Amino acid sequence: MRYIRYVFLGSLGLLLVSVAFANRDAVTLSLLPDAFANLIGLNYTIEMPLFVVILGAIIAGLLIGFVWEWLREYKHRAEAARKSQEVQDLSRQLKREKRRADTAEQKDEVLALLDEAS
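Above: the chain sequence. Below: its structure as tokens.
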């Protein structure tokens, strides 16, 4: 199974390198459309290779997805934490009740011995 993972990661790496070599031309990225940027006065553009834009978009999408999932699963993590705390509380109560039962059992033995002696 480990070798299959290495083969998959290697072929994925070769695919990404191939995409990078095929898309080395520079592209211009603008923050806003030209008409709106001129109206506001915020005309920010940058030139970079296309493969950087593609890989950056993939990474940004993954990060947004991870954050979205983490926020979405908050209620499940909170419920799991509550259940874990409840299990710990019940475990402490059970130990306390077992100690009480052992103490009561010892007292009953003493009473039984006193009854036999009389």
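The beta strands are 26-30, 45-49.
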